[in-house]
Amino acid sequence: MKATARAHTNIALIKYWGKRNESLILPANSNLSVTLDGFSTETTVHFQEGLKKDSFHLNEQNVEGDALGKVAIFLDKVRALSGKEIYAQVQSVNHVPTAAGFASSASGLAALAAASSKAIGLSLNDTELSKLARQGSGSASRSIFGGFVEWQMGKREDGSDSFAVQIADKSHWDIRIAAVVLSKTEKKVSSREGMRRTVETSPFYAGWLEQTAKDLQEIKQAIKVKDFEKMGSVAEANCMRMHATTLGANPPFTYWQDTTMRVMQTVQTLREQGIPAFFTIDAGPNVKVLYLPENEAKVKKRLQATEGVEDIIISKPGSGISYR
């Protein structure tokens, strides 16, 4: 009753921001991401008779408190599906800066869903696995798949039609995503709290939902025909509108730092000079820059010269769940 799974994180090109059901983690809007080969989590789950509770080790450190609680609650869902009452040892290695806007929860919960369901003897297809992962972290539903992935919000109250689907595999389009690391510290407002505050208090939120439905259709078409400038401009505008909703919340908040702004300006300057590059930012200060492979040297050089940039990690579209 032991299995190991690896999942890669993803970056949303059309943002998931807000829930229509908190407990089932059902999104207020359908959204779209690209899976990244540069960031991953590998998790081993070992269910064992005789254990009195679940245990969790992250990067070889024993974890207690809320983080362990989240893992145990998720494993309860897996136990309920299997009909087996048995505890587990969970060991994860996270190749993602935790809680700094790099969606470590996406790869972490996707890997946990895959490893735990296999270890306990469930035979879930990718759709079923996506639904399960969603119940731990919404963006984890997308990390089950590689390439370009849409998380369909669904309409049913039980969440049975809310899961991710792959719209193009990783070989469809050779693009690059530079993760520009500005801060590895944990953010002050978690994604979950930020979403809740925005949905409940921001007067901009209704407009965000209306426009995002249009953005999603535009970007899917751009990906299909490999229109890079269209894809990038839609993703960048969608990102800016999402972050505008946080400024309208009560109390207002932002995930950006001064260096975030400098990187955004660097990308805009690259475009003015004829190099197609676009940025997107999740719930954190770090910026992801989209560009084509032939422009990598120029883009990387300009980003490295931007004050406050700590590191740049280059990714291509990555794979979905894998086992070993």
Output the keywords.
single chain, 324 residues, alpha+beta, Ribosomal Protein S5, domain 2, eight-stranded mixed beta sheet, four-stranded antiparallel beta sheet, 37% helix, globular
How is this structure best described in words?
- This protein is 37% helix and 25% strand.
- The protein is α+β, with helices and mostly antiparallel strands.
- The protein has one domain: Ribosomal Protein S5, domain 2.
- Strands 1, 4, 5, 6, 7, 8, 9 and 14 form an eight-stranded mixed β-sheet that branches. Strands 11-12-10-13 form a four-stranded antiparallel β-sheet. Strands 2-3 form a two-stranded antiparallel sheet.
- The mean pLDDT is 95.
- Keywords: ATP-binding, Lipid biosynthesis, Lipid metabolism, Lyase, Nucleotide-binding.
- Its EC number is 4.1.1.33.
- One of its GO terms (molecular function) is diphosphomevalonate decarboxylase activity.
SSE blueprint:
Elements (H helix, E strand, L loop, with lengths): L1 E13 L4 E3 L4 E2 L3 E17 L7 E4 L2 E3 L1 H18 L5 E7 L9 H16 L6 H9 L13 E5 L10 E6 L7 E6 L9 H11 L3 H21 L2 H20 L10 H15 L4 E4 L6 E5 L4 H9 L6 E5 L6 E2 L1
Parallel strand pairs: 5-7
Antiparallel strand pairs: 1-4, 1-14, 2-3, 4-7, 4-8, 5-6, 8-9, 10-12, 10-13, 11-12
Helix pairs in contact: 1-2, 2-3, 5-6
Protein name: diphosphomevalonate decarboxylase
EC number: 4.1.1.33
Keywords: ATP-binding, Lipid biosynthesis, Lipid metabolism, Lyase, Nucleotide-binding
